[in-house]
Amino acid sequence: MNISINTEIKSDLADVSLFICAVGFEERSIYHFKKLINENKITKTDILCFSFNDFIDEISVKNKDILREFGVELIDVSKNEKDEIIDEIKKRIESLRCNLDSLNIHIDYSSMPRNWYCNIFLSLINILGENDKVFYWYSHGDYSSNLEHCSTAGTDDITVFAGKASINPLKRSHIFGIGFDRIKTDAIRTILDPSTLVICYTYPEDKPDMNSHLVEEHKYLFDSAALSFSLPIEDYSFMVNRLTDIALDLKDSGDVILVPDGPKPLILACSIIPILLKKEGIIAMHIQSHSNFKPENIKATGKISGFSVTRN
Amino acid sequence: MIPLINKFKGCDKENPFKDSQAKNFSNKKLMTEFCPTSFFWSLFNDQHEVLVGTRGSGKTILLRMMQYSLLRHIIHPEAKRIVSSRRYFALYVPTNIEFLRTINPSDLSYKSRTEFFQFGFNCFLAQTFLTEIYSVLQDIRTDFIEQSKLELSLAKKISRMWFPDMQPCATFKELKFQLGSMYHNFNFHKETDLSSVPLVFSKPIGTPIQSVSGHIYQDLEMEEEPKWLLCIDEADFLDEDHLKCINTLFRTYSQNIVIKMATLPFRHITRETSIEGEYAEPNGNDFNYRSIAFQPDGEDFKKITNQLCENRINKVLTGEVLTGVSLEGLIGFEGGDHLIDYYKKEIDNTEITREEIELGIVNQFSEKRKSQALKNGIGSGKNLKPVYNKFAPIYFLREMYKKNSIGANVAGFYAGPNMIRKVSEGNPRIFLQIMNQIFEEGMKTRLTPKKQTQILQKYANQHVEITERLPERGKDLAEILEKICSYIKQRTHNDALSDVGNDFLLEENEINNKQLVKALELGCAYSRLKVDENSLISEISTKTVFTLSNLYALMYWIPMRNGGNTLIWNKEKSQQVNVKSYKLDNLQTSFKFE
Q1: Which of A156, A172, A187 sits opposite B24 (nearest CB)?
Q2: How far apart are CA A122 and CA B458, in angstroms?
Q3: Interface A:B, Cβ pairs < 8 A
Q4: Could you give the CA distance from residue B205 to residue B272 in angstroms, rounded to a whole number?
Q5: Residues 6+ apart with CB under 8 A from A66
Q6: How far off is chain A from B247, nearest CA to CA, in Å?
Q7: What are the residues whose beta carbons fall under 8 Å from the beta carbon of A170, sequence distance 6 or more?
Q8: How far are the Cα atoms of A97, A99, A206, B359 from residue A103, in angstroms, in the given order?
Q9: How far, in Å, CA of B239 to CA of B197, rounded?
Q10: Does the pLDDT of residue A12 top 70, yes or no?
Q11: Residue B301 distance to chain A (closest CA, Å)
Q12: A172 touching B, CB under 8 A?
């Protein structure tokens, strides 16, 4: 199915058929919900909210209580149970379809694990109706000041999310999406041992200092890269288009392996490139959280970015 | 002699030492870079072998160069012999992670995992096989018409075996297309079995080759059916189920298939086979482990590093081709390129005598050792080996460290070709990375010993800094090494001059500390530590001698040598007699001397 991706600027939604979110150990996980409910943009019946049952701490309990106060029913899911949440979403959409000709589905993926939001994207493009529109919203969080959450990675943590590797490619190029988790990025780099390395990263336009911070943080990685480029986190469709161009350029000489980390919009953008291009030899890999993963409370900065997906 | 590098001062060309990985090298570049050694030629044999080497040690280039299509371009009597005998054919199969994860998505059952792995592997293998026999075909039929006739005949035979239900292919290109199509159209996520693919591809690895080998070898003018050397690269990504498939091949009759599998140290994680209770036995029974490490001061590594210098330098030269380039000629050296030469240069006294140095050594001894040495007589024959030869390297190091520690002083001690090879640990990639920085500076300024020391220290610093970010146990490894190195540094510089080394053993009860052992194994895979060959190819035990890498030694100013007293890593027995207790911040770790 051909889809169109457009950057959305306004986060004060109108006409919400369904609002999907995840609540967990980050304060930011309820930021968008609170904003919308306070502005009367959504009601409790429009909400499909998942909560993690893996990492329960003081903040997650508090977050859940807030949602319950508003009468929102929570579905407890384990972080690894992506199929369960996809089934729930599909069920909900099917029931909405009985009454509505077109659906406006809004997803706040700010606090979802990557195997949730990437798989939600993958599933929804296959059931998208002609007049449907799916919005993906991201509440920005501040990661730069706290590097304590940095984990590591091992070979077993690596999976292919989308795409198929060629047999016997001429060459292989790796596109690394990076964030502030230097330890994890370097571990992945050591495992994958890329010979043609391309780095992409993103930061909010109102925080230009994050650019130099990232470059400094990953100095050795940048030194060894054949190419590096930054992407505007607010402009999702530009991000996707740029990544698509780069992947296609590199594909001319062999397989292209996207290995995203960093902010969720970047992870999602990198992950969907093989889905959009549908070419053998363009692959997106995912690095699952390592066994030493420690949940960190990420606070919302107040900024929300988004994009929408429609059928062409 | 003026170092060749001076010629490049102000040069605005790209640093020729920038590329350090053979994975993406074109065949042409690979052939230029390749420097055959006796180890390489010895790989053409009938024995299954697991080749163990650190990251960057040259595993990929070895396996890629074994292919007939590349080997036939090498001008070397041994290459000529192997090519003309057509007895061994290497088929290069890199098991990169995206390929493995493609053919083995998560959540597959054990049965499917194994079957899909065999299928994916066989598809890859078959592609490589076609490329290689096409090279033979080109060699034996130079006339185009004759070549096409033979290709047609071979393609028909092969396609009948591989794709019996299809119209036979007329060319290898068509066969490759069939293979690609079969792989492309197989959905590894959705299929539950291999009933949709031709039988030969669903069988154990190597079956597609075995199925046709006996039918085509005579057409390829071979006297007997050849041995197909399956060169499996990046086998460190293979998991237990995959390794079981390969181990099964080791254990059973493999019908002209011989495995050469390259992996990181300690990454051949199981010897189990697909048959319960059956294990593949090393030591020549079913297979052999072989270490591919070069000795940093060995002739092979010298030859390789010189050839790399020659090739890379010629890349930046226009209009001339230099031959006989060596590392020595490129960067120059002091005196005989020994430690003493850089020591003499640094203290600005080239005339210093053995007696003067020996007196310096003796004066830093403990009282007991000092009186014995003085009794023997400074400069005496009796002192030559046990005093001068043994302690001079540590004495130089101590003196240089003192000099280096004054303000912003740099003691130009870590310099010269020997030192560069030594800190490269016989690892071509580390060598190229160091040379990248050496050449970068050489284009800007004169490479004095001080400058070289600064470059090597900077590189060592990066190397040490990155340790904590190595996969999985990097943080543990960094912590352990930091503590050991700090301890040895203190012993080297703060106490009386003694026989300090850069090696250590594990106490018996530490062998069961899996976290510690895993961290140390990681250090061996990524050139932070070295172990004796026996441990490298089998397992870590109380007999394993761990040696800190020379880059760590350089970073911490500790000797690049094994000491007479080996440190033992021990967390429990600090109360024992002769135990030198050294309280460490968190681990409460102690060391004892043997």
Answers
A1: A172
A2: 46
A3: 91
A4: 16
A5: A30, A34
A6: 21
A7: A253, A254
A8: 8, 10, 33, 90
A9: 24
A10: no
A11: 23
A12: yes
Concatenate the DSSP letters of all residues of B253-300 into one string.
--TTEEEEEEE-TT-----B-SSTT-B--TTTTS-EEEE-PPPTTSHH
Are the C-beta atoms of A103 and A129 separated by less than 8 Å?
yes
3-state secondary structure (DSSP) of residue A301: strand
Say which DSSP state B499 is in: -
A126 touches B: beta carbon within 8 Å: no
Rounded CA separation B288/A60 (Å) = 54
Those residues with Cβ within 8 angstroms of residue B363's Cβ, 6 or more apart along the chain or in another chain: B370
Contact B99 A158 (CB under 8 A): no
Q: Name the band, by pLDDT with cuts 50, 70 and 90, for residue A40.
A: confident
Report the candidate in B323, B589, B554 with the shortest Cα–Cα distance to residue B479: B589
For the ranges A25-29, A75-79, B20-24, B29-33, the lowest mean pLDDT is seen at B20-24
Which residue in B440, B435, B445, B510 sits closest to B480, CA to CA? B510
User: Which residues of B lie closer than 8 Å to A, measured between beta carbons?
Assistant: 19, 21, 23-24, 55, 96-99, 101-102, 105-106, 120, 123-124, 127-128, 179-180, 183-184, 188, 236-237, 239, 462, 466, 468-472, 474-475, 526
Q: CA of A131: how far to CAs of A88, A90, B33, B214, B483, in Å? A: 21, 17, 59, 61, 64
Angle formed at CA B74 by CA B69 and CA B75, multiple of 5 degrees: 145
Distance between CA atoms of residues A143 and A141, nearest Å: 6
> What kind and span of H or E run contains B151?
helix B144-162
Do A5 and A307 form a contact (C-beta atoms < 8 A)? yes
Indicate if the pLDDT at residue B544 is higher than 50. Answer: yes
Please check whether residue A250 is in contact with residue A282, taking contact to mean a CB–CB distance below 8 angstroms: no
Band of residue B186 on the pLDDT scale cut at 50, 70, 90: very high
Burial of B73 (0-12, 13-18, 19+ CB in 10 A): middle
Other beta carbons within 10 angstroms of residue B261's beta carbon come to: 27
Strand A74-77 and strand A282-287: the pairing is unpaired
C-beta of residue B222 within 8 angstroms of C-beta of residue B86: yes
Locate B473 and state its tokens. Answer: 């146990």
Q: Are A114 and A286 in contact (CB under 8 A)?
A: yes
Domains of chain A listed by start with CATH number: 3-142+295-311 (3.40.50), 155-287 (3.40.50)
Cβ neighbours of A20 (radius 10 Å) = 27
Nearest to B184 among A187, A255, A280 (CB): A280
B566 HSE (CA, 13 A, CB side): 16
Q: Is A142 in a helix, a strand, or coil?
A: coil
Tell me whether residues B102 and A160 touch, CB distance under 8 A: yes
**For residue range B220-278, what is the model confidence (pLDDT) as tens digits?**
999 999 999 999 999 999 999 999 999 999 999 888 999 999 999 999 999 999 999 99
Q: Does residue A308 contact residue A6 with C-beta atoms inside 8 Å?
A: yes
CB B498 within 8 A of CB B238: no
Q: What percent of chain B has pLDDT over 90?
A: 81
Distance CA A177, CA A256 (A): 13
CA angle B158, B159, B162 (to 5 degrees): 90
Has residue B579 got a pLDDT over 70?
no
DSSP at B584: -
Whether residue A264 is predicted with pLDDT greater than 90 in this model: the reply is yes
Which strand (E) or helix (H) includes residue A69?
Answer: helix A58-69
Measure the N-to-C terminal CA separation of chain A; round to a whole number of Å. 8
